[in-house]
Amino acid sequence: MLEMPLPIVNTLGLHARAAAQLVRLAATFQCSLTLVREDTGLRANAKSILSVLHLAASSGTRIRLVADGEDEAEAVAAIIDLFSRGFGEL
């Protein structure tokens, strides 16, 4: 199991388009991927658009990614890249 903190750096936060990008990417991996909002403890399945949107994560929110499974390292690296690029909005 791997865990990684991920700050949301894009100005619009984890809105519908960004969440859709995340879910599409997460679905390409076999491992389980969970997002945990650090300030509230709210958890979301990163492979479910409704679950991700339920986090209501605005810019500056800190999210923790928890990955568990055989391709967890690859999944974490890809998702870190997506978050660090601000979902293509920077």
- Which structural category fits the helices and strands? alpha+beta
Count of discrete domains: 1
CATH superfamily: HPr-like
CATH class: Alpha Beta
Strands, total number: 4
Please report the distance between the alpha carbons of the first and last residues: 30 Å
Order of helices and strands: EHEEHEH
CATH architecture: 2-Layer Sandwich
Low-confidence runs of at least 5 consecutive residues: none
Helicity, as a percent range: 25-40%
Instruction: Note the beta-strand portion.
Output: 15-25%
Radius of gyration: 11 Å
The CATH topology annotation reads as Histidine-containing Protein, Chain: A
Arithmetic mean of pLDDT: 95
Number of helices: 3
Biggest sheet statistics: 4 strands, antiparallel
**Tertiary shape:** globular
Keywords:
single chain, 90 residues, alpha+beta, Histidine-containing Protein, Chain: A, four-stranded antiparallel beta sheet
Written account of the structure:
With 90 residues, this protein is of the alpha+beta class. It has helices spanning 16-26, 49-54, 72-84, and strands at residues 2-7, 32-37, 43-45, 62-68. Strands 1-4-2-3 form a four-stranded antiparallel β-sheet. Strand 2 and strand 3 form a beta hairpin. The longest helix is centred in the last third of the chain and has 13 residues, at 72-84. The model has no long low-confidence stretch (mean pLDDT 95).
